[in-house]
Amino acid sequence: MLRIQEDLTNERCLRNQQVIIHSIYIFLEKAAITGLWGKVNVEEAGGEALGRLLVVYPWTQRFFDSFGNLSSASAIMGNPKVKAHGKKVLTSFGEAIKNLDNLKGAFAKLSELHCDKLHVDPENFRLLGNVIVIILATHFGREFTPDVQAAWQKLVSGVATALAHKYH
């Protein structure tokens, strides 16, 4: 009987340690995200991210017919409407960062808009998230460590899932 109690106590201690380690890891991820976010030039990085998405994945251009000239990479990257919308998109990531524990709620209205009105393929959210991570890596170099990259990859994945929520 004593051996069983000892085993249960050890098991509880192990579970408590795992919870503590997980909590510390989440805290460090949030710190990595918020620490870098404070240094992001949203206008510059947002325009660059959306521009690269439109260049690398040209089928995404169909959602931006009203943006004018998207005929070449230089036209896209210099397009003021692309830059302005990119800023708007990346600004929404600021909202995500303020609501890391409720991404689905933070993006409920945008999910509904993109699903019901714009009919955007939810795969595009994942693609844009990956482009954002690449842009941040190029802007921040060595400061964009593997741990920071992992935290941001987790964030953009969570945002993509939240934006795709209405589709399910």
Automatic annotation (TrEMBL):
It comes from the Eukaryota. Keywords: Heme, Iron, Metal-binding, Oxygen transport, Transport. Coiled coil: none annotated. Pfam families: Globin. InterPro entries: Globin (IPR000971), Globin-like_sf (IPR009050), Globin/Proto (IPR012292), Hemoglobin_b (IPR002337), Hemoglobin_oxygen_transport (IPR050056). The keyword Metal-binding applies. GO terms for molecular function: haptoglobin binding; heme binding; hemoglobin alpha binding; metal ion binding; organic acid binding; oxygen binding; oxygen carrier activity; peroxidase activity. Gene3D superfamilies: Globins. The keyword Metal-binding applies. One of its GO terms (biological process) is hydrogen peroxide catabolic process. One of its GO terms (cellular component) is hemoglobin complex. Residues 24-168 form the Globin domain. Belongs to the globin family. This is Globin domain-containing protein. It comes from Capra hircus.
